[in-house]
Amino acid sequence: MGALSETWFADGYIDFELKKYTLLAYLQDINQHFTQSRLYPQLSDIIFHYNNLVAFRDNKQFLQQQFPKRLTAVNIQKLELLYEQLIADDELMEELESIIQYSLPQLNSTIKGGTEIYEYVAEHLTIFPVGLVPLETAEGYLLLCDGRGRQTLVYTYRLTIFERHDEKYRGIHTQYLQAYKKDLVHTISHIKSMLIRERNSLPNPAVYCAETPLVVPVNETLLPIAKRSLVKYIAQEAA
Q1: I want to staple 174 with a disulfide (CB 3.0 to 4.6 A). Which of 71, 117, 121, 155 is the partner?
Q2: pTM
Q3: Concatenated DSSP letters of 86-111
Q4: Exposure of 191 by Cβ count < 10 A (0-12 exposed, 13-18 middle, 19+ buried)?
C-alpha cells in the first residue's frame, strides 16, 4: 500500500467507500509492521494522520500551526479550497464527515496497538551512565545492547532544543559509529576508554548505556525508543 498522502481524505474523488478501502489497505500495511515489532517510521506517520484529521475536523487553521514540517503550502491551499467547497456543498460535507467519523477510530485503534509495543519495549529498557557524568551532557555516546548479547552498538548523540508554540522541545540526533563484540575485554567501561582515547573531538564525553533483554528490530524500534528514553533520562537528571 505504501504511505498515505498528507491530504489523502481530500485527494481526488471524495467518496466514502473509496476512502474507506484506501485507509484499510494502509492500516493493513501498518499492522504488518507492528506484528513484526517494527514501529518506526510507521507509528509516527499514523499519529500524524490521526492528528491531521482531528485538526481538519476542528479548525482548518490548526493545520498550519500544528504541522508546519509536514504540510506544504500546496497542501494547505488544497484544504482551504476544500473548505470553501464544503460551505456550498452539503452533500460533499456529509461525505467527508462520514470519512472522518469512520477513519478516526480506525486510526486510533492501530495507534493503540503500536503504543502498546512501544510501552512494552520502553518498560524493559534500562538507561544508565557509564562512569562519571560530566557537566556538559548535550553531546556524547550512546551504547546499545539487546537480548542477543552478541555486540554493543555505539552511536554518537547530540541533543538539540527548539521552540514551537511557546514551548521548548528536546530533540536528539544520533550517528552510528561501530559495533564491538561483547566479551570479557570489550566491557562498556573499556569501550568508553577506547572512545576517549581514539576520538579527540570529545575528550570528556557523557556516555550512556541503553540495554534490554528483548530482541526487537534495532533501527525500526530499539534505537528510536532508546533515543527518546535517553532524552527523558538526561532531562530528568538535569532538573
Answers
A1: 155
A2: 0.83
A3: HHH-HHHHHHHHHHHHHHHHHHHHHH
A4: buried
Radius of gyration of the chain (CA): 22
AA letter at 185: V
Residues 224, 179, 131, CA angle at the centre, nearest 5°? 80
Q: Are strands 206-211 and 151-164 parallel, antiparallel or unpaired?
A: unpaired
User: Strand, helix or coil at 217?
Assistant: coil
Cell of 68: 508546519
Instruction: Answer whether 131's CB lies under 8 Å from 205's CB.
Output: no
- What is the C-alpha to C-alpha distance for residues 78 and 184, in angstroms, rounded to an integer? 60
CA angle 140, 143, 147 (to 5 degrees): 165
Please answer whether residues 182 and 191 qualify as being in contact, where contact means their C-beta atoms are separated by less than 8 angstroms.
no
Three cell numbers written together for 202: 570529545
Q: Are 217 and 33 in contact (CB under 8 A)?
A: no
Q: Model confidence over 109-154: pLDDT tens digits?
A: 999 999 999 999 999 999 999 999 998 899 999 999 999 888 999 9
Query: What's 21-87 look like in SS3?
Result: HHHHHHHHHHHHHHHCCCCCCHHHHHHHHHHHHHHHHHCCHHHHHHCCCCCCHHHHHHHHHHHHHHH
